[in-house]
Amino acid sequence: MVRVLLADDEAMVRAGVRAILDRDGAIEVVAEAADGQEAIDAARGVRPDVALLDIQMPGPDGIAVAGRIYRDLPGTAVVMLTTFGEDEFITRALRAGADGFLLKADDPRELLAGVHAVAAGGAYLSPKVAARVVAGLRGLRPAGAGRAVAPLPEGRLTERELDVLSLLGAGLSNAEIGRRLGLVEGTVKAHVSAILGKLGVRNRVEAAISAYEAGLVVRAH
């Protein structure tokens, strides 16, 4: 069962999102919050598998909350669910430690897929958000939008870590990577932790962007 914290300052939005999540028998909403501080307190209290956060909430906004959860609750994955898909919000959310980014206008199936993906140790971007990220990686990033990740440190990643990174960049979860490479999930987690440290990135999404920039993702096909 994937335990979810749902945080949004609009009660009607929370009700609608909860109705979608309740359709999935493997997801349970264990707490709700109407502002940033409530979200932080609830996350500390229930320690959910996934925190589903709106960006614009009273008190600390969703991105600030994501950063607090990232630092204080490493066992909780964070997904931003918002109406705002601008590059600035995407970059800020990923830098804060978000594992996923979804738009409220997305198909409800994307919400369920995103929750399951990050709960399994993967990363998930709305197709529309992913298109913006890929466009940026192709040199189409708007002027002034900074580089979000560090380049690959030459010679520091082992061959196995490069294999893991390429599959991570393709959006695979730890379990899926393990099946592809014949590794137990615990070993994959150890490789992912080493990769994040060597790349100097905060999360799997930033590592995946590094994989795209380095041309590694083709190795996943």
Automatic annotation (TrEMBL):
The keyword DNA-binding applies. One of its GO terms (biological process) is phosphorelay signal transduction system. GO terms for molecular function: DNA binding. The modification 4-aspartylphosphate is found at residue 54. Residues 3-119 form the Response regulatory domain. Residues 150-215 form the HTH luxR-type domain. Keywords: DNA-binding, Phosphoprotein, Transcription, Transcription regulation. This is DNA-binding response regulator. It comes from Streptomyces paromomycinus (Streptomyces rimosus subsp. paromomycinus).
